[in-house]
Here is the input.
Amino acid sequence: MSGGTDAHSGSLRRIVAFASGKAGVGTSMLATNVAVFLAQIGKRVVLVDANFEGAGLGAWLGCPAPECHVGQVLFGGAASLDEIAIETPVSGLRLAGRSPQLFRGKALDEASLERFGQAILGLGADFVLMDLPGGPSRITLELGAIADALVVCAMPTPDAVACAYELMTALLLEKLHGACDAVPAARACLEQLGMRPGPYPTAREMCAALGEVDAMLGRRAAHIAASFHPLLIVNQLRVKTDETVGEAMVSAATRFLGLVPRSLGGVEWDDNVWQSLRRQRPLLVEFPQSRACRGLERVVRRLLGIDLKDLWAEVVAPPSTQEQNLYELLEIYPGASEEEVRRGLKRIRDLFGHGALAMSGVCSDTERETYQR
Here is the structure.
């Protein structure tokens, strides 16, 4: 990956945000242990606890509640996150933590979030990792927008999968809102789409609606949507079929939502995770040979292998399912052999057949039944 410049050293700094559609999928565990892994291979890492309503990341690292915390930056008590970030037991990893009394007597407003975002951009490190709140909250949408890479965490349950789709769509909606600042009619159009009953609008619907307001804005929106590639991790894999959930979610989001996410892989369910939390020691330190650690290593290797130029490259999603031909429906190319057609059909049936997790919340019941038929 390649990202912004670290003002302290002139090297490339990469800001990676970890978010989830709902609480409880293990976002904090993933963010913390990815940070530990990066530090172990010699990177300078700052882990930022931006989940202001969560329990705090200190427990995952064995750090006490900090005297200096992110609230001092949010509300103007400290000039930078570098000032309040503390050393952790892992060499090369610093933590900008939160305090249980973070919001006592204070309100989080737009100015506070803007100040915090600027502090994130000013951190000196090779990697800055943010742990964001679950769900499409204002904090998650605004801080997620400044990241070089956005990691959406899910788990193989219908609610977590559906909420991950919702979050990805909400993040794109937020990006398009930013592009419409100078066009009130376009902003009103997006707000109306976002508040309509039922599921979030698809990328195709957003771009088409903006194109009706202003043709040039519609083309810009299409470019933003085609360049938006959230990274997906599926946590707590328990059975063999769970291993294909990430692949299926990428395909479903591309097919039905008009988004083109990318999969970083999955991490297996592992009792060692809660044992490491009970002991307040990082999983990668306490149980380095565990199944979860093997999954985390694959995830980090894939993350490091992504260049931001590729992550931001424009990739046009295929037409809607109703407009696809049979080759597109099976995700094979014209001229495919009979054996390739059979394999394609089996794969699609496995990914999107009756009761498939990846179909949770991604489209209407009618659209799902038509596609499966």
Q: What stands out?
A: The two ends are 41 Å apart (CA to CA). DSSP finds 18 helices and nine strands in the chain.
